[in-house]
Write a structure and sequence with these properties.
Layout: E1 3-7, H1 11-23, E2 27-31, H2 34-38, E3 49-53, E4 55-56, E5 59-60, H3 61-70, E6 77-81, H4 86-94, E7 99-102, H5 107-121, E8 131-134, E9 137-140, E10 145-148, E11 151-152, H6 157-168, E12 173-175, H7 176-183, H8 193-207, E13 217-220, E14 224-227
Parallel strand pairs: 1-2, 1-3, 3-6, 6-7
Antiparallel strand pairs: 4-5, 8-9, 9-10, 10-11, 12-14, 13-14
Length: 232
């Protein structure tokens, strides 16, 4: 689980963000002032990513970003800004920020930006291995290929990402909300609930001997889906 530091003073926004990020398998610690965030500098490397609001009562997120970069820490930094004015964007990137998102924003887009930054930084736990093997499924993460019982699966990009997410969480229930957020790709192409159902059906047709009676990709009604480990 990746650990995030959220610097934000808006109580209503903090509560919603913390709840949603935790539901998406992130661990979140909150600082409500620049001073609080700066006090964490000696232990900043225990965080995988910083989410910094720009405007705080005692300063700006830019101040925190600059302090972090002065320590030569390469942790990814994402700015939350109420304005997408060019001057704010340029200042954020110039002081060492990696990305920004403008309020109001959708949770799915925020999670997509966070995961993209983590992947690029090489700290995403899901990217530390080069392959995944689960029962009769083998996934080559470097080659973006998957095989079932040694036979290559012909998967679309979305089907492949869905398979990876489910297999990584084998024998655990993955909610539809988490899947929808994960399948929102870096290009901003959103996957809605109906489209997800289509992806699940098509993936079943490729991995199940009898898609009407699945052994691998199981529906957990009212929650989401579960990948059952099935051996050859």
């Amino acid at each position: 689980m990746n650990t995030l530091l959220l610097l934000e003073d808006d109580f209503s926004l903090v509560d919603g963000l913390v709840y949603s990020l935790k539901k998406n398998d992130f661990s979140v610690e909150v600082a409500r002032t620049v001073q609080d965030a700066l006090a964490l500098l000696p232990e900043i490397e225990r965080f995988d990513l910083l989410i910094l609001d720009v405007t705080l009562p005692d300063g700006t997120g830019f101040d925190v970003c600059e302090a972090v970069r002065r320590q030569n820490v390469t942790i990814p930094i994402l700015f939350l800004t109420a304005s997408d004015e060019e001057v704010n964007v340029i200042r954020g990137l110039d002081c060492g920020g990696d990305d920004y998102i403008t309020k109001p924003f959708k949770l799915g887009e925020l999670c997509s930006r966070i995961r993209a930054l983590l992947r690029r930084a090489g700290v995403s736990k899901s990217e530390k291995t080069t392959s995944i093997e689960c029962g009769d499924i083998f996934i080559d993460l470097l080659g973006n290929r998957a095989t079932l019982k040694g036979k290559a699966l012909d998967l679309t990009s979305a089907e492949y990402r869905l398979l990876c997410l489910l297999v990584r969480n084998a024998n655990r229930v993955v909610t539809r909300a988490i899947i929808l957020n994960e399948l929102w790709d870096d290009a901003g192409n959103f996957v809605d609930d109906n489209t997800l159902s289509v992806y699940v059906r098509r993936l079943r047709e490729k991995v199940e001997s009898d898609p009407s009676h699945p052994e691998h990709l199981i529906t957990i009604r009212g929650f989401g889906y579960q990948w059952k480990e099935v051996s050859v």
